[in-house]
Automatic annotation (TrEMBL):
This is XRE family transcriptional regulator. Residues 8-62 form the HTH cro/C1-type domain. InterPro entries: Cro/C1-type_HTH (IPR001387), IrrE_HExxH (IPR010359), Lambda_DNA-bd_dom_sf (IPR010982), Rad_response_metalloprotease (IPR052345). Belongs to the short-chain fatty acyl-CoA assimilation regulator (ScfR) family. It comes from Streptomyces tropicalis. Signal peptide: none annotated. PANTHER family: ANTITOXIN HIGA1, BLL7220 PROTEIN. It holds the Pfam family HTH_3.
Length: 347
């Protein structure tokens, strides 16, 4: 079970605060804060109010987060490189957990009706590629390239949040909160990488909603490859690959040239030698680290969270009321459900 101490700790880590920094901001001793976070003592009402204010949340939010089924600070599915700093991805993981709880807090007051849903599968019974094909069929997606990928995911009720992670070594992370999935993507990445990340995290949400598996990263990658580049359509296009052909395919499919090479190799359309030669050609042009054409691809821009904020504003709610319903201490702290000024009534 979650606890108030876990809620305070997660909120502190999401902001990048040390215990000493939060204790000073909230006007409590570090020793007292340590006891609060380890559930050795519950803060009195006045101290809890100061802690909530320093953390940018409301007291009801902290108490609600502390009573969630299971743990609040769950491990997130994360697409990251092995060299990513633990301090950075732990902070991002805490931020995602906080967003999960804000979504949960708001959904206690507001219902979200999605056009579709994100189905879940047991990866033991369902192959990752088969799961991707079934999702495409359930969502009635057109054959071929996935246009506006983020909009498809949001239409299934997944709140996607785009932020600059401050590092290029972490691409995205995701997790479920009750019946609502939440995903964070790194906007510092090029569009083709963002699209692969969204497909990868969608694979995690579909395949690993309950228990992780030893091959979960490989499964999510295979899901993303089939979801974004269906074998039935792309296989004939992968023969006789050249750099020029890779350029054309990148424009068509919206994925990186390296992802297309890997797809061709995984489908056994090209040999390992051909794969190595293509990578060598990319390296000779300096394209292993920064590929061309990425800035020509249509951007993937999340809109669901803002749409929820605007729908609430259309109901006559003010910025402050929306923030409070989502568990933020004031409107300026609410970076999730933000409505445009024209939709907000005067307070």
């Amino acid at each position: 079970m979650s606890s108030l101490g876990e809620a305070i700790t997660t909120a502190r880590r999401a902001l990048g605060y040390t215990q000493e920094e939060l204790a000073e901001a909230a006007g409590v001793t570090q020793a007292a804060l340590s006891r609060y976070e380890n559930d050795l003592r519950e803060p009195e009402s006045e101290a809890l109010a100061r802690l909530a204010d320093a953390l940018g949340v409301t007291v009801p939010f902290l108490r609600s987060a502390s009573s969630v089924r299971g743990a609040m600070a769950v491990d997130a599915h994360m697409r990251k490189r092995a060299t990513a700093k633990a301090t950075t991805w732990r902070q991002l993981e805490s931020q995602l957990n906080m967003y999960r709880m804000h979504v949960r807090h708001l959904m206690e007051e507001v219902s979200l009706r999605a056009q579709q849903r994100i189905p879940t599968f047991d990866p033991i019974d369902t192959d990752a590629a088969d799961a991707a094909r079934m999702v495409r069929m359930q969502w009635r997606m057109p054959i071929g390239t996935v246009r506006s990928l983020v909009r498809w995911v949001e239409a299934a009720g997944c709140i996607v949040l785009a932020e600059d992670f401050g590092t290029t070594r972490i691409d995205g992370l995701s997790q479920w909160v009750d019946d609502y999935p939440v995903m964070m993507i790194n906007v510092a990445a090029p569009v083709d990488r963002i699209r692969l990340t969204v497909g990868h995290e969608l694979g995690h949400l579909c395949l690993h909603s309950s228990e992780p598996t030893l091959a979960m990263e490989e499964e999510a990658t295979r899901f993303a490859a089939e979801f974004l580049m269906p074998e039935e359509v792309i296989r004939p296009q992968l023969r006789n690959l050249t750099l020029g052909r890779l350029h054309d395919l990148k424009r068509e499919w919206g994925t990186s040239m390296q992802a297309i090479i890997e797809r061709a190799h995984d489908l056994q359309v090209i040999t390992s030698t051909k794969r190595a030669n293509l990578y060598k050609s990319l390296g000779n042009h300096g394209w292993r680290t920064r590929e061309p054409l990425s800035d020509e691809l249509p951007p993937e821009v999340p809109a669901l969270a803002q749409s929820i904020g605007e729908a609430m504003a259309d109901k006559g709610l003010s910025r402050e009321e929306i923030a409070e319903m989502a568990g933020f201490s004031d409107a300026d702290r609410n970076k999730l459900f933000v409505a445009t000024t024209r939709r907000l009534r005067a307070v």
